[in-house]
């Protein structure tokens, strides 16, 4: 039979049936949230120890300035000292005792428990953050001041996106000038628009109680919020370099009294408020975040706090903030590695593109930083969706594209599972001695369901079909999809009776 074609076995079923089966969504999510990170370690063990010891030395010898009196008094009672410059200092023994007793993991609750997840260990979750003051308009495609309606729109949108594990306010409602009404209405938007875990900011400590009262009403009564807290307080208690901030300290104490987890963010700037060298900056910002850990734990040992060391980069030629690039990616990955080294819940920042448009620069910067931070094993990766223009702006289209990007990132973090079955020797034997292709093999269909993510917005058409379909780019496809989601997804997750109580108590501005 030399020179003749080898006969092929035909399998049952039509091509149309096979294509229909392939077009169905996968039975399981091939890229779920919460994979195990830690594959990327930018620092060697020796480097981690060198940075750690430098941070400890900074706290013991240089100490913290501008400590509020209540913090100073409590710290001195716990073993701190005052140096010759009047700065509050913590010995290595004191810091390490606090690390040993610090919270190592906690459950971040959703109002719907299906959204709850454990923060800690080496599990990776992506979510939002930010305080953008501008929004990329869906119609004009130029930036304008962000509004309360924008914030509610982003909340509703995030409610539908599976890779956003929690929603933190991503923009500031610039149309609400009163700071109390801003804090109240921001928290109200989060309650009304999603049942995922949320995070919010408090301008002043005195704003915490009324807002947590509102959370109690939503949760079912007095004290109910503290039983399963679904909101965390975002505070920035350190003013770099090495000083405490009084307003954030007040918010922290008020949050502790009401049982609200704390996300303690240190966002030092390379070459401005911290050293320009990568290792020096990591040492300084790690020391400052340790100082925040001390601050919380001397008042409430073991209190749930996310150790959010977010080392930021500035362009040393211009002084402009750089949200994207290799340096900020390696810095935040290194920050995660350091936090994981001491075993506390870790938070870092990624995807803060400097691009103004939904374009190739945006995609490159976001993918680079989110992958680095995810692979580093950070527990909570903030700013991961929607942030643009070096954190000054946010985009509806970017939210959707980032959500899809994160599926690819989760898939990479998940890695490869090797078993006798998946090594596929028997399947290879069948194909090599049979039809000569794997398309119809049962194992191929199973792998398709289990191992491969198929994008909705990403384009995989051949050029002619793409042209015939309108030749749209990713931003155009995302714009259309955002409009569809916002037009149909109109949730109100607040009970009408509770909503009426809130409306009678506070000046709620959302229509």
Kindly summarize this structure in a few lines:
The protein is α/β, with parallel strands linked by helices and 511 residues long. The protein has helices spanning 15-23, 45-62, 69-77, 92-101, 148-159, 179-193, 208-219, 224-227, 246-257, 278-299, 326-342, 360-376, 396-414, 420-423, 425-432, 442-451, 463-468, 474-488, 496-505; strands at 81-82, 88-89, 105-108, 117-120, 125-126, 134-136, 143-145, 167-168, 198-201, 231-235, 238-239, 243-244, 262-266, 305-309, 313-314, 321-322, 346-349, 380-382, 387-388, 393-395. 45% of the residues lie in helices and 12% in strands.
Structural summary, described in words:
The chain has 511 residues and is an alpha/beta fold. The chain has 2 domains: 45-98, no CATH class; 103-414, TIM Barrel, CATH 3.20.20. The chain is built from 19 helices and 20 strands. It has helices spanning 15-23, 45-62, 69-77, 92-101, 148-159, 179-193, 208-219, 224-227, 246-257, 278-299, 326-342, 360-376, 396-414, 420-423, 425-432, 442-451, 463-468, 474-488, 496-505; strands at 81-82, 88-89, 105-108, 117-120, 125-126, 134-136, 143-145, 167-168, 198-201, 231-235, 238-239, 243-244, 262-266, 305-309, 313-314, 321-322, 346-349, 380-382, 387-388, 393-395. Strand 11 and strand 12 form a beta hairpin. The protein is globular. 44% of the residues are buried.
